[in-house]
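In this supplementary section we document a worked example of the pipeline. Step one takes a protein sequence of length 189 as its only input; no multiple sequence alignment statistics are reported here. Step two produces a three-dimensional model, which step three serialises into structure tokens for compact storage. The input and output of this example are shown verbatim.
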Amino acid sequence: MIPTVDNTNLYSVHWKDTFDNKIIGWIGSKTTINNFDLIIDALNEITKRHPEVKIAIISNTALDYTDKIKSSYLISWSAETYLKALSTFTIGIMPLKDNEFTRGKCGFKLIQYLNMKKPVVGSDVGVNGEIINGNGIVANSTEEWVDAIELLLYDENRYRECVKHIENEFFDKYHFDNIAKKITKNLEG
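The serialised model returned by step three reads:
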């Protein structure tokens, strides 16, 4: 099976260490932003405990989520700037409601964060658990989201372990160049 990938090489020019930034990041659109409903309480608890934490939303709109989620702000998505904006995140998040539509999603947000070498926290829906494996933490309840985010934002050893896993395991399976080689080999074979 060939997994969904993105061009890792476009991300690599933006790789940088952002452990000290304390930015929780999300990228998506108006059609998926309502998944934030699952974690509003968790994010507000995080920013209550840690006022230095910010929540960046890269999207065409934040609807009213910047009002509902403390310390959140919108970065307007554009093809020219979204990779630079992703590079500022400390971790990436992918909350997902569990329904037929979301179970069919390919985990692309996670793939984008991981291509930027950012550890992730996401709901265990569809392929998310498989993608997150070792690259971050699966979370489903409010308490699990709070614990997972705090751990990755403040336990530098755990954060670095995830980054190392991304560089080795994730890139082995999802790096654009590796997938291109597999496809070429299959076509030639």
